[in-house]
C-alpha cells in the first residue's frame, strides 16, 4: 500500500492537521452560548478526531501533543477573543489573552498525549477520558490558575432535555457523553471515508470495516435519542416546591462611572436609591442587589448607616455587594442586611439629614472564594479569597442560600458544597458591565456564556437560583436549568420573582460528583502509556505494514 506522507520526525502538524484542528475549534465555539445550534457540539470534535485516528499508527507522542495543543490554541483563542475587547478600558487584556491561550494550549498537549497513550484502545474510550479528564485538571488542579470556564457540557445549557442527566452525573457526565458520541461518529466515519486522511490509508490488517463504521454511527444516533427521551421524561416528572419570593434590583450603572473612582460611589448610590421605592412596591420579598453594588467598605460607619436607612425605609432586608477590609487586602462580599431597625433618615436621598446617627445593623455575609485568574488572583492584586468553609448564607424567613459571586458560578464543586451544607436555593450576583455595554456591538460572547453556567449549577444541585447583574443578565433559573429573564439587559429596573427548588438533594450532590475524580486515575494511566516522546523509527514504520 502506498503512503504519500512520510514519517513525522519533528512532530510538526502539516496543513491538513491545521485545517482539521481549526475546523473543530470553530465548530465547538459555534455550539457554545449564545449559539442557536447547540447540537453542533456532537459534531465539533469529529474533524480533529478523524484526523488523529488516521495518523495515530504512523505518528508519535510528540505529534499528538503538538496536534492537541494546536486544537486547544485555536479553540481558546476564539473563545476568549472577547478579552481583547476590553482594551477599551485598559491595556492588560492583550498579555492576559495571550497568556491564557498559551497555558490552555499546554493543556491541549496533555489531551493529545492522553489520546496517544490510548492509541491501541477504541477512540470512544480514550477521547472522553482524555477530554473531560483535562477539563477536571483545568477546573480543579491548577491552583490560582484554575479556570472552569466553558466546559463541553455548557453547549447544552439552552437545551433543557439534554441537560437533565446533570442531576445524576453533573457537567462531567454530560461532557463524557458528548465526547463519546463524537468519538463514535468519528470512528465510524474514519472507517467509511478517507476524509481528512491526507493520503494516509489504514493498514490492511486494521480491524473493522465499513459495516462496523455504520454500526458505530447508528450506536451514536441511538445514544443521542435515548438521552433526549430520558431527559424529556425527567422534565415532565420533576415537580419543584416553592422556596420564597425576592425582589431583584438591576441598577445599570454605566461602565465609565463604575471605573471612575470619583463617580463610582455617588453613581451607584443614586442608581440604587432611585429604584428603592419601586422595589418596595414590587413585592414583599427581600431586595437583592448585584456584586459591588456599593463599591465601598461595607464595614465603614458611613455605609452601615446608609444600609440601615435603606432597610428602615423599605421595611425589608437588603442583600448588597461590596468590599470588606482583610488584613492583607480586600474581600469581595455579598452581605444580607436584615430589616426591622429604625433609622434617623426620613427620605431616600439624605440618610443623616437631622444630625442623628442611624442604628447600625450587622448582617451576615459570604466572602468570595473563587477569584478571577489573572485579574483578581494575580501578582500585586489587592484582592483576597475568603474561607472555603463558610456555611450557606442566613436568609431570614427564607431557607439558607448558597451564594456564588460572579465567576463562582462556573465552579461546580462550590455549588455542590452549598447544597450539601443545607442551602435550599442559589444566589448569583455579578457586575457584568465590563463584558457588555448598551450597544449590541459591545456585547461579548461572555455576556451570554457567564449566566449559562447557572443552568448547569441548578440542574446539578436541584436548587432554583436567582441571578442579579449590574446591567444583566438578571433573572431566575429553575432546578431543571430553564433560565427566565426578569429585567432586560442595560435597563434600570426591579422585579419580584419566585424561587422554586427540588425537595431533596440530587444524586449528583449525594455522590454522583465522585465521577469527576474517578477520571483522574484513568487520565494518568493514559499519560503513563504515552511516556515515549519520540516518533516511531523508520524500522518501526516499516513493521507497521506500510511502504513508501
Structure description:
The chain is α/β, with parallel strands linked by helices and 548 residues long. It has 17 helices and 11 strands. A hairpin with a 4-residue loop joins strand 8 and strand 9. The protein starts with 14 loop residues before the first helix and ends in a 5-residue tail after the last helix. 52% of the residues are buried. The N terminus and C terminus are likely disordered.
Produce the secondary structure layout.
Layout: H1 15-31, H2 46-55, H3 61-79, H4 82-85, H5 93-117, H6 123-140, H7 160-163, H8 166-192, H9 210-237, E1 241-250, H10 255-258, H11 264-282, E2 286-288, H12 301-314, E3 318-326, E4 329-337, E5 364-367, E6 401-405, H13 412-420, E7 425-430, H14 446-461, E8 465-469, E9 474-477, E10 483-487, E11 493-501, H15 507-510, H16 515-529, H17 538-543
Parallel strand pairs: 1-2, 2-3, 6-7, 7-8
Antiparallel strand pairs: 1-11, 3-4, 4-5, 8-9, 9-10
Helix pairs in contact: 1-2, 1-3, 2-8, 3-5, 5-6, 5-16, 6-8, 6-16, 8-9, 8-14, 13-14
Amino acid at each position: 500500500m502506498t503512503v504519500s506522507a512520510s514519517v513525522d520526525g519533528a512532530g510538526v502538524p502539516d496543513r491538513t492537521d491545521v485545517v482539521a484542528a481549526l475546523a473543530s475549534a470553530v465548530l465547538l465555539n459555534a455550539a457554545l452560548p449564545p449559539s442557536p445550534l447547540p447540537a453542533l457540539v456532537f459534531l465539533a470534535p469529529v474533524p480533529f478526531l478523524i484526523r488523529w485516528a488516521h495518523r495515530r499508527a504512523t505518528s508519535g507522542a510528540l505529534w499528538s501533543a503538538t496536534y492537541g495543543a494546536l486544537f486547544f490554541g485555536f479553540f481558546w483563542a476564539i473563545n476568549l477573543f472577547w478579552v481583547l475587547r476590553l482594551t477599551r478600558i485598559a491595556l492588560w487584556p492583550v498579555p492576559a489573552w495571550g497568556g491564557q491561550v498559551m497555558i490552555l494550549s499546554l493543556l491541549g498537549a496533555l489531551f493529545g498525549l492522553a489520546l496517544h497513550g490510548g492509541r491501541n484502545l477504541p477512540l470512544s474510550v480514550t477521547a472522553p477520558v482524555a477530554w473531560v479528564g483535562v477539563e477536571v485538571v483545568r477546573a480543579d488542579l491548577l491552583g490560582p490558575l484554575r479556570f472552569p470556564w466553558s466546559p463541553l457540557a455548557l453547549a447544552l445549557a439552552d437545551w433543557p432535555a439534554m441537560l437533565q442527566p446533570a442531576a445524576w452525573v453533573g457537567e462531567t457526565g454530560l461532557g463524557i457523553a458528548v465526547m463519546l458520541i463524537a468519538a463514535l461518529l468519528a470512528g465510524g466515519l474514519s472507517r467509511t471515508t478517507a476524509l481528512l486522511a491526507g493520503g494516509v490509508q489504514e493498514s490492511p490488517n486494521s480491524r473493522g470495516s465499513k459495516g462496523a463504521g455504520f454500526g458505530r454511527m447508528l450506536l451514536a444516533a441511538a445514544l443521542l435519542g435515548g438521552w433526549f427521551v430520558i431527559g424529556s421524561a425527567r422534565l415532565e416528572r420533576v415537580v419543584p416546591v416553592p422556596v420564597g419570593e425576592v425582589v431583584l434590583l438591576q441598577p445599570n450603572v454605566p461602565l465609565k462611572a463604575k471605573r471612575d473612582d470619583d463617580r463610582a460611589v455617588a453613581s451607584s448610590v443614586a442608581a440604587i436609591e432611585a429604584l428603592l421605592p419601586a422595589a418596595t412596591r414590587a413585592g414583599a420579598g427581600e431586595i437583592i442587589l448585584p456584586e459591588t453594588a456599593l463599591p465601598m467598605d461595607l464595614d465603614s460607619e458611613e455605609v452601615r448607616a446608609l444600609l440601615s436607612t435603606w432597610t428602615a425605609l423599605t421595611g425589608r432586608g437588603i442583600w448588597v455587594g461590596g468590599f470588606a477590609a482583610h488584613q492583607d487586602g480586600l474581600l469581595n462580599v455579598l452581605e444580607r442586611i436584615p430589616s426591622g431597625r429604625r433609622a434617623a433618615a426620613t427620605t431616600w436621598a439624605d440618610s443623616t439629614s437631622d444630625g442623628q446617627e442611624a442604628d447600625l445593623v450587622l448582617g451576615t455575609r459570604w466572602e468570595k472564594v473563587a477569584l478571577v485568574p489573572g485579574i483578581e488572583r494575580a501578582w500585586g492584586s489587592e484582592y483576597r479569597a475568603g474561607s472555603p468553609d463558610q456555611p450557606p448564607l442566613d436568609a431570614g424567613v427564607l431557607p439558607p442560600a448558597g451564594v456564588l459571586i460572579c465567576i463562582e458560578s462556573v465552579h461546580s464543586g462550590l455549588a455542590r458544597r452549598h447544597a450539601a451544607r443545607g442551602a435550599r436555593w442559589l444566589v448569583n450576583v455579578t457586575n457584568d458591565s465590563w463584558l457588555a455595554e448598551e450597544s449590541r456591538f459591545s456585547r461579548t460572547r461572555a455576556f451570554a456564556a457567564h449566566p449559562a453556567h447557572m443552568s448547569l449549577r441548578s440542574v446539578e444541585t436541584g436548587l432554583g437560583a436567582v441571578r442579579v447583574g449590574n446591567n444583566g443578565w438578571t433573572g431566575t433559573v429553575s432546578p431543571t436549568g430553564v433560565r427566565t429573564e426578569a429585567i432586560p439587559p442595560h435597563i434600570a429596573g426591579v422585579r419580584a420573582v419566585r424561587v422554586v427548588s427540588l425537595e431533596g438533594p440530587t444524586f449528583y450532590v449525594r455522590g454522583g460528583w465522585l465521577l469527576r475524580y474517578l477520571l483522574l486515575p484513568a487520565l494518568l494511566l493514559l499519560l503513563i502509556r504515552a511516556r515515549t516522546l519520540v516518533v516511531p523509527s523508520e524500522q518501526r514504520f516499516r513493521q507497521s505494514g506500510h511502504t513508501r
